[in-house]
Write a sequence for this structure.
């Protein structure tokens, strides 16, 4: 039995230092391929940092908390051979701006739609993880004709399926870690805060190496970054309300691959996605916790690429 049923909190979470693009089982932060460039795209109330490269049908990749778009470099290296790869940092994360508002996932999905507009991309495949799943659902629910396929990885959707049961876990203290003192409690201790997520939500904490931890801790230590991260969680109540409205309106019809990590979400990922989609294929990444692109990059890249190549 996977650990999700016993420990619901393990469902959640929820400067490039590598010199090689070779895929391996270790968790170094890798460089994007030569030919990728970055753009800073203004949306309604934010500036979104985006990596773009490759040629062919578009694929958009959305990261979650504890990562940035840098997590997708191994997948981008493979897909850029025959896809246009678009990798944003979400509003309030990575090198995107940290506005005071707009952390509901409906608004963040509109950020991604504006990025696609700016890049002249009408339709794209979608690959998401963690909070990226939540933004992804708000994107496909609002713009169903703009997403052709969706690979959704290891995190639930606020308001959907077992969400209310998940919220009862005392381990989900970080969902409500807010108030006037949280910024100064974490300031200068960002690495300590993030280590807890990397250690507790992984199958093997050693799979997330020291260079990776330093890389992301440095980014999350940027002024305003942790405050914005807290706001991602603070928006979950609004997200739940929005998602229930989306789900009541219509189910998604595009092909969906619901990937759960064996030591995290597991088969329940597909069960939840069937609450909102009619064409859902399940899958499990073996020997992995929540951080599948760090823990099992080869296996994840293989499965996601295979799904995107299906006719």
């Amino acid at each position: 039995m996977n650990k999700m049923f016993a420990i619901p909190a393990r469902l959640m979470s929820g400067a490039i230092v590598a010199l090689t693009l070779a895929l391996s089982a270790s968790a170094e932060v890798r460089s994007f391929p030569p030919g990728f460039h970055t753009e800073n795209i203004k949306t309604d109330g934010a500036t979104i940092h985006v990596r773009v490269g490759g040629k062919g049908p578009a694929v958009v990749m959305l990261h979650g908390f504890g990562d940035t778009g840098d997590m997708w470099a191994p997948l981008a290296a493979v897909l850029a051979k025959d896809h246009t790869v678009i990798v944003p940092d979400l509003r309030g994360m990575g090198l995107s701006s940290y506005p005071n508002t707009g952390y509901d996932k409906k608004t963040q999905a509109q950020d991604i739609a504006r990025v696609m507009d700016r890049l002249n991309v009408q339709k794209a495949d979608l690959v998401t993880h963690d909070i990226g799943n939540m933004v992804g659902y708000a994107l496909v629910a609002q713009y169903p004709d703009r997403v052709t396929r969706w690979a959704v990885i290891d995190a639930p959707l606020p308001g959907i399926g077992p969400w209310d049961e998940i919220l009862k876990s005392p381990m989900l203290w970080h969902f409500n870690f807010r108030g006037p003192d949280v910024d100064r409690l974490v300031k200068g201790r960002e690495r300590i805060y993030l280590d807890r997520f990397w250690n507790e939500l992984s199958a093997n904490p050693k799979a997330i190496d020291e260079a990776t931890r330093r890389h992301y801790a440095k980014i999350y230590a940027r002024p305003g970054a942790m405050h914005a991260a807290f706001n991602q969680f603070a928006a979950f109540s609004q997200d739940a309300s929005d998602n229930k409205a989306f789900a009541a309106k219509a189910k998604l019809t595009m092909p969906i691959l619901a990937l759960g990590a064996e030591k995290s979400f597991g088969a329940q990922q597909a069960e939840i996605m069937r609450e909102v989609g009619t064409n859902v294929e399940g899958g499990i990444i073996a020997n992995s916790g929540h951080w599948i692109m760090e823990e099992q990059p080869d296996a994840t890249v293989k499965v996601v690429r295979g799904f995107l190549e299906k006719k």
